[in-house]
User: Fold PPM-type phosphatase domain-containing protein from Pedococcus ginsenosidimutans.
Amino acid sequence: MSEGQTRGARRFAAHLDWSGSSLGAPDQWPTALQVVWDLVLACPLPMALFVGEDHVLLYNDAFAEQLGERHPAAFGRRATEVVPEIWDESHIGSLFDATMAYGEPFLDEGTEVRVPGSQADEAPILGHFLRTGSPVHDDEGRVIALLHIAVEMSSTLDRARAVTDLATALAVAVTVDDVCKVVLRESVSAFGALSVGMCLPSPGPGGWRMARRHRIEDLSPDEERLPLIWAEVADDLAEVVARCTAAGEPYVSEHAELVAIPLRARSTAAVILVFRESTPLPRDIAAVLTAFTGLIGEALGRAVVYDAERSTAELLQRTLLPPSLPQCDEISIAARYEPVSEGTVAGGDFYDSFFLPDGRLALVIGDVAGRGVMAATVMGQVRSALRGAALTDPRPESVMKSLDRVVWDLDALWPASMPLGSTRARPGMAFGGELFVTMLYGTVSPETGVVEIASAGHPVPALLSGRFSRDEGNPRGQLLDMAVGPPLGLSGHRPTHRLVLEVGDMLVVYTDGLIERRGEALDAGEARLLEVLADVPPSSPRSVAQLVMESMVPVSGQEDDCAVLTVGRSPRGHRRAAIVVPPMPESVKAARDWAREQLELWQVNEGDQYTIVTGISELITNAVLHAGTESHLTLDLDTGVVAVTVADSGNRGEPLLTGGEAMAVRGRGLSLVRAVSDAFGAHRTSAGTTVWFEVEVSLTNAGVTVGDVAG
Assistant:
């Protein structure tokens, strides 16, 4: 404490009216009390004296900071009047009373108490304190005062809590992207940082890349799901990263505004950069650093291996799925696929749609039991065989019989010497007479909406009714009342079910991973799906597929692969336009102009045009800045809804931007898009990131709107 501060505290004591005090003025105090008071004035820690039976409060300037605006009026007053909420509503007052009565000191560690706010009407702030109380005796041994030290420990406990939160979050973080998100989020709290950067080796020769998070950022759940933005590390920071990596020890700049923490995750090096205010590092930070580096290094090592294996599996899985689905004026189709959350093996779920020679659309969704390369391979073979069978004879019963023979032949290919469970076989590498394939196959006529469909052991589809169908008494969502035959490869009858899709109706087909849960009856999953469909707003097949997937897939992780295929009949016909946008700044204006021209051609109302073009501008700007690759911009007009999709091919792990201040820009851009649109979504695939939004529009020559048919 400075001399000026000491004189200030002593001056308060000198001008205080001590006439009502049993001890009198300080110059009349016993020697022991005067010595303790001098100690209080000289100590930089928050210290106070509670004098006499009335607990008259005297304190130094460090303690005054804890009192806030209650200082200086609190000086020389009874403690019970200054902080009644602490004295009367906690155990603190009783500890003080006991020390004064019996002369026993106390140590109170980490107690949560209420600290007076800076405003009289402000709610008290919770804090954690280390408190001590020591008796002060006069010459005759009587307790005449209590020496109190109160050290605020909230920041220390927050750092300890951050280590616990980090361990909990890392336990469910399986990818490198997931681990880095957890590290950035928890490090900001643990180190009281302005921002934190996570640095990993760049795919390029000898460079580093960094993802960064700022204290002021408050990302929405949609933004949290997006992959991190990786930026090339600037030369000055790259030098610091390289230096601390080579030394294997943390680096602290002269004024501690930058702390670099090296990590070793098996064969992968990593560095955490903590950007903070220029203040001395807390002494307890070393323990936090040790805990952080151990937890993160282990999690990052697991994630690197997981990503390598999973990328291969996802690439195989998605390569076997159709890259796009057919569209026509009367019928629009969309699909979503979600791999299993845990594990690194490909699944056997598949879907497809294609035009038949007579103009009808073929629809198929199926599931090969099991996981692994062989399940995915069989899935690809069945899908290819189905196309050949459907082009020859598209009737469901004929296609099913042809695929029975295919499944029999595939099962017979595996030698009897390698049945499942043998020491030479690995899970998913052989079937041994147990190949199990379910499938739903059907056709739909764009002109009439007539659907003919059959099931080979597959869950029955759901029908989402539009306005016309509901006017006839149909519920919003219902499961089709149709017979289910045996799975492919087993003999049996699979009856064809016939229905008519009215304008605004939508068929929702899916694999069993969407509704099945471990330890739960299938009926419960079907009921949950119908509840979701009952609340689906009028929208396109794309947003229905997205909403169903997001609502049905558990937050804690998907237990099985699942796919959703949605087929809708539009009153005005489906319109689509697409362009490829180069990764250049001038591409943003070109994309806006192109979109405005398409919307004019489709006779979209001018106000809706502005909303859509604004959203496109934000998404293309983000793609140009953050992906570093060309992006595909697609416009779809269907059932009075314009859907905009921007898909980039920026792979995880590559530097996407020069300069690391992009996270907040992305957050503001996506928040704007979400605010102006009626539906919004984002998902990542092995090929890159796709962001989409939808806007319900009015057409300048419209006689029928989306609300007339699908609302």
